[in-house]
Design goal:
By secondary structure, the protein is mainly alpha-helical. 77% of the residues lie in helices and 0% in strands. It contains 7 helices and no strands. It starts with 6 loop residues before the first helix and ends in a 6-residue tail after the last helix.
């Protein structure tokens, strides 16, 4: 005798599929690892140059950040173009992670446009670059905490809280060269390391 599925069993099946999709692994690990590692090196390099620990003058800072920006953009597009899509991209957690980090990028773009504009057109100093560190760290914290909260990912929530604490430390250090070390530490612990953790949980291929 053939068993005919009932409406309730069909609805239960659909619900299970939906819940499985909502609990899909987060897929932004490669981007977090890339940008977290890059910013860790960039902030460390800025500190070493600013304190003359490597015998390079501060005029090299523009070259450093131009290189970092170029590498960051190239790496971002490469990670998007050459890595195959994976199951779960449309889950709530992955959509939130994508949108919140994209929004953070827009904020940073607007901030640095303003800082550069002040220097070029209003004859302002470079204090805006110092203050960029707590701004950047704060956006790290916001992005990680919101993603972790929506996706139910404890490590990302912890990373967000750690970045919030780092924002206070960076704000206290703003105006000194140690602010760059604060930025490097937070980029490593709150972005790079969680990125590696997410990479370990990603599914292998599209199903």
């Amino acid at each position: 005798m053939t068993h005919t599925p009932t409406l309730s069993s069909d609805l239960a099946y659909i619900r299970d599929l939906a819940e499985a999709g909502e609990n899909a692994p987060l897929l932004g690990g490669r981007f977090l690892a890339w940008w977290g590692g890059l910013m860790t090196l960039a902030y460390t390099g800025h500190f070493l140059i600013a304190t003359k620990a490597v015998g390079i003058g501060p005029e090299s800072l523009w070259s450093l950040w131009a290189t970092v920006t170029g590498l960051g953009i190239i790496g971002q597009f490469a990670l998007q173009a050459f890595f195959p899509s994976k199951p779960g991209e449309s889950s709530t957690g992955n959509r939130v992670q994508s949108v919140v980090w994209m929004s953070a990028g827009f904020v940073l773009f607007a901030y640095f446009i303003g800082v550069i504009g002040q220097i070029m057109f209003l004859g302002g100093g470079y204090t805006g670059f110092y203050w960029s560190v707590p701004v950047v760290i704060g956006l790290y914290g916001l992005s990680q905490f919101v993603t972790g909260l929506i996706a139910g990912h404890g490590a990302l929530k912890f990373a967000g809280l750690a970045a919030f604490a780092g924002t206070a430390v960076a704000a206290m250090m703003t105006g000194t060269d140690f602010v760059w070390l604060a930025g490097a530490g937070v980029a490593f612990l709150a972005v790079f390391v969680p990125g590696l953790m997410l990479l370990r949980t990603e599914p292998a291929t599209t199903v």
